[in-house]
Structures are given as C-alpha cells and as structure tokens.
Amino acid sequence: MAKLSKNHRQALEKFDRLQEYNLEAAVKLLKELAYCKFPESVDLSFRLGVDPRHADQMVRGSVVLPHGTGKEKKVLVFCKGEKVAEANAAGADFIGDEDIIKKIEEGWVGFDAVVATPDTMKDIGKLGKYLGRRGLMPSPKTGTVTFDLVPAIAAIKAGKVDFRADKAGNLHMTVGRISFSEDQLLENLQTAIDAVVKARPPSAKGTYIKRMTVSSTMGPGVRLDRSITTAR
C-alpha cells in the first residue's frame, strides 16, 4: 500500500470518510481539503449496479458541463474532402486521415477528443486498441461520428465530457477545477450526475448508483448523498 503524505493524512482527519454529504457540503469540504499549489482537477466517480459485460447494461453517454472542465481540449478530426475546410473553420486542432492514423499507431497522444465523419470510420477502426483504452474512440452514441462537424467540435470546446462505465461498473469523469467557484462546481456536478442517472440502462435492476464520490486530484474522496439522484 502506498504511503500517504503528511498533507493527505491531515486532510483525512478533517472529515468522516464514511458519511455521505449533500452537494453543497461536499463542495465546501472539497475546497477545504485541497492542499496542492497547482490547480487540481475535480473528479466525480460512481460505483454502478450494472454488469457492463452485458451489452444491454453498458452505461455510456456525454454531457456538456455548464462551466466546462477548466481545460482547453485539443480536438482531432478525421475527415476527407470538403469537410477538411469545415473542420478547420470550426476550430479543430488536428485534421487528418492516414497520416494521423500512422502517428497514433506510433504512439502519438497529443489530443483530448476525437471526431470522425462516417466515411472515415472504416479506416480508423484499426485504432480501437489505441483510442479505446483512453475512451476516445468516436461513436454515434456520443455524437462524435457525424458529418455535421461544426456543432460536434463546438460542444467539445464548450465543455462536453464523454463517460463510459468500465468492466467493473465504475465510471469516472472530470467536472472542473478546484479553483472554480462553489456555484460553478455545484452546477457542473449536478449536471454530470443528472446525465449519468439519465443513462441508466432499462435492463439494470436493483440499486443503480451504489456510491458516488467527489475528489480533487490529490485529495481524499468525499462520498455524496445518493438521494440527490432521485430528488430532481
């Protein structure tokens, strides 16, 4: 087990790790517990009562956070022909086809999101093992496989976050920075939680959200009151 730093141990002593807090209390506590000098990310984690090994229980979707994530995303677009000019005008950071595919196969990871036009999917299918493990493989379900590039790129730049449960039923997403105001974090958190609740598979039985935790990059996790998922 990794040895905890002095700052981390002191943070753990400031609250009850087993208590579930409402959003307002959790955000206040989160800011009190942050101790790093750099602007830590704020991450939201779920333990879901689903078995993603079954296709009909996969939890996947996307959400546009009201205040973004605090990080400017670099968008890679796979497209051809006249769509290249459209992607460029829409603010794509990287545009390519076979040349970009080769770079990714060689280990290039200088992008945060991927959008592709449908006619390029047959070519980038080979990148599944590279993009899939980072959760970046384009998908019609998240609006990242489309000929309508302008709104797709704009949404990502505005703070769109894709989410997907892993094989164990855990789901993680970044919802902002610790430097955000309390109101900004509250709005982002509630929006993200609502999106995950809405993404519940019809086949999921029993308790859907077993645990929710919010934390900063280096800080301890603060459990959230699960009743907020049914209060709206």
**Alpha-carbon distance between the two ends:** 40 Å
Q: Which CATH architecture of the largest domain?
A: 2-Layer Sandwich
Q: Which structural category do the helix and sheet elements fall into?
A: alpha/beta
Question: Tell me, what is the CATH class of the largest domain?
Answer: Alpha Beta
The third-level CATH topology of the largest domain is Ribulose 1,5 Bisphosphate Carboxylase/Oxygenase
Number of helices: 8
Silhouette: globular
Give the strand order of the largest sheet, numbering strands 1, 2, ... along the chain. 7-1-8-9
Q: What's the CATH H-level homologous superfamily of the largest domain?
A: Ribosomal protein L1/L10, rRNA-binding domain
Mean pLDDT: 90
Largest sheet: 4 strands, antiparallel
Low-confidence stretches: none
Percent helix, as a range, is 25-40%
- Structure summary, number of beta strands: 9
Give Rg in angstroms.
19 Å
Q: What string, H for helix and E for strand, traces the elements in order? A: HHEEEHEHEHHHEEHEE
Query: How much β-strand is present in the residues?
Result: 15-25%
What does this structure look like?
The longest helix has 17 residues, at 182-198. The chain has helices at residues 6-12, 23-33, 83-89, 98-105, 121-124, 128-131, 149-158, 182-198; strands at residues 41-48, 60-64, 75-78, 94-96, 113-116, 160-164, 170-177, 209-216, 222-223. Strand 8 (209-216) and strand 9 (222-223) form a beta hairpin. The strands form three sheets. Strands 7-1-8-9 form a four-stranded antiparallel β-sheet, covered by helices on one side. A three-stranded parallel β-sheet has the order 4-3-5, with helices on both faces. A two-stranded antiparallel sheet has the order 2-6. It has 232 residues and is an alpha/beta fold. The chain has two domains: 16-68 and 161-229, Ribosomal protein L1/L10, rRNA-binding domain (Ribulose 1,5 Bisphosphate Carboxylase/Oxygenase), CATH 3.30.190.20; 75-158, Ribosomal protein L1/L10, domain II (Rossmann fold, 3-Layer(aba) Sandwich), CATH 3.40.50.790.
